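BACKBONE GEOMETRY TOKENS
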Amino acid sequence: MNDFENLVGILIPSTFVVALVIERLLRAKELPKVRFWLLKGLVFFALTGGVNAVVPLIVAHIVGDRAPLHLARVGLVPGALIAFLVTDVVAYFVHRTMHRVRRSGAGATRCTTAPSGWTWPACRTTTRST
């Protein structure tokens, strides 16, 4: 399974770089010019990667054996799938609650939050598009 972990570690930045190259070569439309856009993208990609690497280590250290689910027993891939599904369901209900609880009279009318790049199917069917 170590090879799979190494592959994922390589695929994440590689996918980002490939997407940057494709965006530069095959633009669907002309985008507005933003000063230091590429640098900002690279910096925030690195920051996001750092946060996503460090926060789970800190949480695992703090929670330790008191974790509600011990997914290490099921293996990396099944554990990742279970964690993804649980996180996605929780994010879905948080998102739906945000639609129901209006802040200062202005609520979202579209699904704009998609955990891990995947949109919950009910979100697409239950919201208005603008």
Notes: The chain has two domains: 1-67, 74-130. Residues 104-108, 113-120, 122-127 have pLDDT under 50 and may be disordered. The two ends are 45 Å apart (CA to CA). The chain has four helices and no strands.
